[in-house]
Design goal:
The chain is an alpha/beta fold and 363 residues long. It has two domains: 3-108 and 142-171 and 347-362, Glycogen Phosphorylase B (Rossmann fold), CATH 3.40.50; 174-344, Rossmann fold (3-Layer(aba) Sandwich). It is 46% helix and 18% strand. It has 16 helices and 14 strands. The protein has an eight-stranded mixed β-sheet, with helices on both faces. Strands 11-10-9-12-13-14 form a six-stranded parallel β-sheet, sandwiched between helices. The protein starts with a strand and ends with a helix.
């Protein structure tokens, strides 16, 4: 049987895209390994063998020591195909190609554009580094067998350079959230995800300040100062903060909510990437209130599943939340439209077939 190994130096072992979707799909037809660096040891789950190379503290150690450990384990498992998930693993891919292996790179995000958003780099250094990385990335990936892209926009960037690429989108799995039946009984909206300022948290908390509404926020703050700022806002009195929650708790939150918020800032990485939560809200059958980016509007307007707003316009967000809360039947219809769109088109079952076709082509 053909052996496949997925490699990550930064993602958790049960990452939704890497493990739950790609690895657990491929195990149906192949022998699948996953190499991680989380310190949790060896495990076999859903027939996928998970190898752990241990944790190295600090960005520098992760880039150099961890990648070296990942390469050693990759050579040890001796697979036919290697599927890489982090930019720092690209040099590993080149070494594996020299050993005669098939190599795939999974571009979750547009790396050069992501660098432009690094707050710890000054403006000049960001531009120089982004330009340099863009050139090196193209040179390296031309040597790989295929590039998997998380969105069509990233796919097209690689195709322009005649790099074999296909978009395999992070659409939801039908067996998880599609059975949720929202109650639409209370004036409740939700945000589920990472709690950074660029995720629009400040604006949505301010938006509910004068509304008779409950805002459920589920996620983890990664910046203490930002957390203190948000919790000091007047609108925080309307917030039901759940912290980091598991998938079962997410289901309960979605059942309780009328609409889900995904009002991300207009940064390059957000404008050109699909927000997984938007599709999860649709899958659960609740209305969506999302940023007015062209990529988001395409889905929401076609499916009639919600509204798009200027993520920096607090008044517009407030009016839209009020509109959805005050017209529950409209919100319910939007939720049903979104659920139908997920069941018909925007789901992992369809993306899985693209993944299988890719591997069949490489083999």
């Amino acid at each position: 049987m053909v052996s496949i190994t997925h490699l990550t130096s930064a993602h958790p072992r049960y990452d939704a895209r890497i493990f739950l979707k790609e690895c657990c799909s491929l195990i149906k037809n192949y022998s699948v390994n996953l190499i991680v660096a989380d310190g949790l040891g060896y495990e076999e789950k859903n027939s996928v063998k998970i190898y752990d190379v241990g944790v190295e503290n600090g960005r520098f150690n992760r880039i150099f020591k961890t990648t070296k450990n990942v390469l050693q384990k990759a050579i040890e498992v001796d697979s036919d195909i290697y599927h890489l998930h982090d930019p720092e693993l690209i040099p590993i891919g080149i070494k594996l190609k020299k050993l005669g292996k098939k190599v795939i790179f999974d571009a979750h995000e547009d790396l050069p554009k992501q660098i432009l958003e690094k707050h710890y780099l000054n403006k000049f250094n960001k531009k120089i580094l982004s330009f340099t990385i863009a050139k090196l990335e193209i040179m390296a990936l031309k040597r790989f067998d295929f590039v998997v892209s998380a969105t069509p926009i990233i796919r097209d960037k690689f195709l322009k350079y005649k790099i074999k690429s296909i978009d395999i989108n992070n659409f939801p799995m039908l067996n998880e959230l599609i059975e949720i039946k929202p109650l639409f009984e209370t004036a409740t909206v939700c945000y589920i995800g990472i709690l950074y300022d660029t995720r629009g948290i400040r604006e949505i908390v301010k938006a509910v300040e004068d509304l008779n509404v409950k805002l459920i926020i589920a996620g983890k703050f990664f910046d203490k100062k930002f957390e203190e700022e948000i919790k000091s806002l007047e609108g925080w009195k309307k917030v039901d903060f759940r912290g980091f929650v598991d998938r079962e708790e997410i289901k309960k939150i979605l059942e309780e909510s009328v609409a889900g918020l995904v009002t991300l800032y207009p940064t390059p990485s957000y404008i050109e990437a699909y927000p997984v939560k938007m599709f999860e809200y649709m899958s659960a059958g609740i209305a969506v209130i999302a940023s007015n980016f062209e990529l988001y509007k395409e889905f929401i307007e076609k499916s009639k599943s919600g509204f798009t707003v200027d993520p920096l316009d607090i008044l517009e967000i407030t009016k839209t939340i009020k509109r959805v809360i005050n017209d529950r039947e409209m919100a319910k219809d939007m939720g049903q439209h979104g659920k139908k769109a997920i069941m018909k088109k925007y789901n992992w079952n369809n993306e899985e077939q693209k993944l299988f076709h890719l591997y069949q082509e490489i083999i």
